Amino acid sequence: ISNGPILPITLKGCGIEPSVEFGFTEYDFGPRFLHHPNMPPNVTTISITNKDVKELSIDCNYIKNPYLDLLFEPQILEPEECMEIDCYFRPQEPIRYSENMVFEINGICKKTVTITGQGALVKVEALQKVVNIGALIVHEKSSKKVKLVNKSPLAVTFTVNIVPSAQVPALQEAGVLSVSLCPNKLQQLGPDKEITLKPKEAVTAEVLFCPTSRVPQFSEEVIMESHGLSYPLFVVRGSCQGLEISLDSDHVPFGAVVMNSRSCRRILMMNTGDIGAKFNWDAEKFAPDFSIFPTSGYISPGMEVPFDLIFHPRGMQSDIRYDNLKCHIEGGRPLKITLSGMCIEQVPYKEV
């Protein structure tokens, strides 16, 4: 008061933090497999409830990163209103993760939520890394069983498969080389023949080899498929001994040959298989215009046998053709060859 007494005034009050309830302030995802696009997300929901009598503003300054993402938008909460925030954990490496998320209430009060987790590798191992399924003969069968153990810290759902390389065409046929899971009485396969193994649990995989023709020595990989990713398990090796005999040509054209003369061509029979065999041509089917020599014999593995084909037409004809002349192979399919030519009249000699 100007030119007057000084009057003391006492002001009293108290400040309290806004009453906000968090669903949790610490959350551990535990071990989770390293993330890739085809995997389902690891997600938890943070709930925030306004327990005050007045509205409150909620904000968060957390900067998301590849391994931990927060789907958050600043919001005003009315009394007793609740908001839910999804938190996604996508581990990139097999390490321990820990992040603090700081929430601001009314721009002043701060609350921290700690999120932790562990990146883990898919680790299903075969107790036998190389399986020798044997050297079979055609139509013989062989099977081998291999135990698979889940050494991951989590359950793993997977299938097994073997995809033979294109370098061995005989393995491409259905049912020649296959692998399947053999669950025990307490295990069950899913509709896509997948199985879920708990940590330290094991299952048996069976490899079946049923060759229908010669298969050269092969080495093929059995793989495990889980959530769209493939992991090598073990290698299968084997072979099937059999006949593999062929001709270097299945059609021999002789062209034009003069009446009462002959023309000769040579072809080769090759044995690139593992077994020798007798052969025998249907020589009588070559007559009367063609002949072959030798007509029969034996061909050993790795051997080549030459044949002389002779065209000796017996009559004038513009198109002489013998289709699918057969050579019978002991224990195998017959080989076939087609011969063609034409017979022309001899041009008279003119004196000059």
Automatic annotation (TrEMBL):
Organism superkingdom: Eukaryota
Pfam families hit by this protein: HYDIN_VesB_CFA65-like_Ig (PF22544)
Any single Gene Ontology cellular-component annotation: axoneme
Residues covered by the HYDIN/VesB/CFA65-like Ig-like domain: 18-119, 245-341
Subcellular localization(s) per the UniProt record: Cell projection, Cilium; Cytoplasm
PANTHER family: DLEC1 DELETED IN LUNG AND ESOPHAGEAL CANCER 1 (PTHR23053), HYDROCEPHALUS-INDUCING PROTEIN HOMOLOG (PTHR23053:SF0)
Protein name stated in the entry: HYDIN/VesB/CFA65-like Ig-like domain-containing protein
Species of the source: Amphimedon queenslandica (Sponge)
Phylogenetic lineage: Eukaryota, Metazoa, Porifera, Demospongiae, Heteroscleromorpha
